[in-house]
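Journal club side-thread
Mid-discussion, someone asked how the predicted structure for our own chain would compare to the paper's figures. Pasting it here so we can look after the session.
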Amino acid sequence: MDKKLPHPLFKLATELGPLIVFFAANAKFNLFVATGAFMVAIVAAMIASYVVTRHVPMMAIVTGIIVIVFGALTLILHDETFIKMKPTIVYALFAAVLGGGLLFGRSFIAIMFDQIFNLTPRGWRILTLRWALFFLGMAVLNELVWRTQSTDFWVAFKAFGAIPLTMIFAIAQMPLTKRYHLEPASLEASEAGAGDVSKG
């Protein structure tokens, strides 16, 4: 079944909704209640995405699985460390996938972000490398924050710091995508670029 293009506000709601639930539950109760609420909200967001668009982005699926696993460990073992390390694992995994792909002449950025790109091979390499380094930096930043700051500060950073940083970085890549953009954009071109960036 073909996927439908979601409204931008719906996409934003499914991405930010679980984080807002996480922040609110932590503020009213504690991190363990927030973790349980976050797990439910993540699953609800993926279900809503599928119901509305008949599709769930790959990044959302991977993130959701890790949230469920680390959230369950947090609740079962009653240890905050697992949920606090979750972003580190997610960011490090994305960095490894993108960086590892480059080593084999492949770019997985379009698949990861569930978008259609049509870039030159050089554009693919540069964009993929930048995102790999960004995710690696975010993994290090998350470790620094949760290990040196209070739980409330970390939750606030997760909800209102990490997302803006990601959005700012994504916007900053627009000149690059325009510089190496090819016409016309097509799914075939995106798949070709994602599959092989070793030429050019």
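Post-session note: Confidence is low (pLDDT under 50) at residues 185-192.
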